[in-house]
Design a protein that fits this description.
By secondary structure, this protein is of the alpha/beta class. It has a single domain (17-253), classed as Metal-dependent hydrolases (TIM Barrel), CATH 3.20.20. The protein has helices spanning 17-23, 37-40, 47-56, 73-86, 95-98, 108-117, 147-156, 172-181, 199-205, 224-232, 238-253; strands at residues 29-32, 61-64, 91-93, 121-124, 162-165, 185-188, 213-214. The strands form 2 sheets. It has a 5-stranded parallel β-sheet. The chain has a two-stranded parallel ribbon with strand order 1-2.
């Protein structure tokens, strides 16, 4: 099983909840739980904890839960509880770190449940810093985060809203094609500073992906101030920037009053 503790090769200072809330003044961010216990053998960041933080700062954070697909029926029950009792607005999955393939029918009962709960799923897409540069990638495979995995899931569950997080390098063209083909599949722009976006991505942001792309930073690795400053330099019409920065997310998460 992989040891995920030391595989982020980035300088990052751990922030308190209060410091994080200060960094998001004037913004709204999705706060993510994390459960990869079966594959990583590391404790979860629980749904209850994430929801408690969001309740302290409801104007700044939106809770997204996490369930471990390898837990089977327990994951389904926790997904149901997280939405109905805790009020999470979606779920985050990292198939490479959780050790499962979204296209595997064994996990379809979980996604059928989430589709019925009418909340979106956010999936890590593209390569990951977890295990990078280590022998065997510390047991972490990249096939589960290839965009075609999410195409299969979107086809199987047309009412399930899927968001693929991060520029999906090295499969950006594949990601563009999947997002264009499946009306229930979107992308977010977190994890990369905008100055490093692949040209295949920036080309489409003002074209076919303008209604499918969502702002995101991957905090605290990239701070909102830097991301927004670099994005502002893009030569995009104002209405397109507004879609990407908040209008698409408002529609997707039903945040419009």
């Amino acid at each position: 099983m992989p040891d995920l503790q030391h595989h982020f090769r980035m300088e990052m200072r751990v922030r308190t909840v209060e410091e994080m809330a200060a960094d998001f003044e004037g913004l709204r961010g999705v706060l993510l739980a994390w459960d990869a216990e079966t594959f990583s053998r590391r404790p979860a960041v629980t749904n209850d904890f994430v929801v408690s933080v969001c309740r302290r700062y409801p104007d700044r954070f939106i809770p997204f839960g996490s369930v471990d697909p390898l837990k089977g029926e327990a994951a389904i029950a926790e997904a149901r509880r997280a939405v109905r009792e805790l009020g999470v607005k979606g779920f985050k999955f990292h198939p490479a770190a959780q050790g499962f393939r979204p296209s595997d029918p064994r996990h379809f009962p979980l996604f059928e449940e989430i589709a019925g709960l009418r909340v979106p799923c956010l999936f890590h897409a593209g390569t990951t810093g977890l295990g990078a540069g280590t022998p065997g990638g510390s047991g972490i495979a990249l096939a589960p985060v290839q965009p075609i995995q999410f195409d299969t899931l979107a086809a199987a569950f047309p009412t399930l809203v899927i968001v693929c997080a991060h520029p999906a390098w090295p499969w950006q063209l594949e990601m563009n094609a999947v997002a264009a083909h499946k009306a229930n599949l979107y992308i977010d722009l977190s994890g990369w500073a905008p100055r490093y976006f692949p040209p295949e991505l920036t080309h489409e942001l003002g074209r076919g992906l303008q209604d499918k792309a969502l702002f995101g930073t991957d905090y605290p690795f990239i701070l909102p101030e830097r991301w927004l400053r670099e994005f502002e330099a893009f030569d995009l019409p104002l209405d397109v920037k507004e879609k990407i920065l908040w209008r698409n997310a408002e529609r997707l998460l039903d945040l419009v009053d």
